User: Fold this.
Amino acid sequence: MSLKIDQDHSRFRNIVRRRIRENLRRYISQGELIGRQGKDVVSVPIPQIDIPRFTFGEKQQGGVGQGKGNPGDPLDGHDDGQDGAGKAGKDPGEHILEVDVTLDELADILGEELELPEIKDKGKSRVISVKERYTGIRRAGPESLRHFKRTYKEALRRAIAGGVYNPAAPLVVPQHEDKRYRSWHQEREPVANAVIIYMMDVSGSMGDEQKEIVRIETFWIDTWLRRHYPGIESRYIIHDATARDVDRETFFRTRESGGTMISSAYRLATDIINRHYPTNEWNVYPFHFSDGDNWSMDDTLTCVALLKDELLNSVNMFGYGQVESPYGSGQFIKDLKEHLGNDERLVTSEIHDRDGIVRSIQDLLGKGK
Assistant:
């Protein structure tokens, strides 16, 4: 029976994965999953999976609950499928099933659908992971760790030594003193670790819609990178003419105005990396989102110099996503391509609207660095 249940559950999970893949691009562009995120899982609305239900016969056929009734009689169970007044209908309603999916499963589906490559990290860091490994035998322990063969051997050895073992009737009954249990010790080993540094332009030209696009895209970038780096950290920088190191909530809720000096964010990111994330121990992923409107060409050249001399030498990759805004010039991405277009460590992407989020994720993560 349990095997049958396991088979049915596996089949259901495969159906769910297929439905998620079919609707994933809509989920990404609309941001439906972000608000449904729990601690370790995401509730995914899966349309078009029929739920088993009772089907009632037509009224003309008679039966319990049909025809006129007396006061106090139970009402019939026929549902017209509407919340309020209206004519009765015979068509079934739409069934939406919410299924809990782990973030790891969601990341795998994202990678399969967008054909993202596996990320090869830069090596081990000093971050330590503790693992338990069974290495020996001891006389005490929980029954779940009892070693059957060693216990039987001890019982057999005692029976032979005591002269009670009969080869013709080889019955061996382990006693309390015969029991042996597996023992373990903890091994400490280094594991790969990573930090994501998100930078966003919050000047007057970045409106609520542009910030929402950034919010959706960073959620999926987070989901994918966390699949590869369990110990990942996230840092957040906002900037207009100056840059600030902030928390996640401030990053997405700040309303600013004024001019833009992108170099302020790049200087702050460089300082954070140098002080907290040495490149021989950390995999570093900065992502900068802006509408491409910078204060001056001089500041743009300063940004290019910071990238060449500092940032690109310290990171796995540097991603720049330019969100289209009716108020921004969009010039910055052109300048980056002109001065650093041949550097594979710099990856750029243009995001025209929400429908462009999927392509942007492919642009930024498609090289698997």
User: Anything to note?
Assistant: The longest strand covers residues 128-138. The chain has three domains: 1-51+94-115, 128-188, 194-365. Residues 1-51+94-115 form one domain.
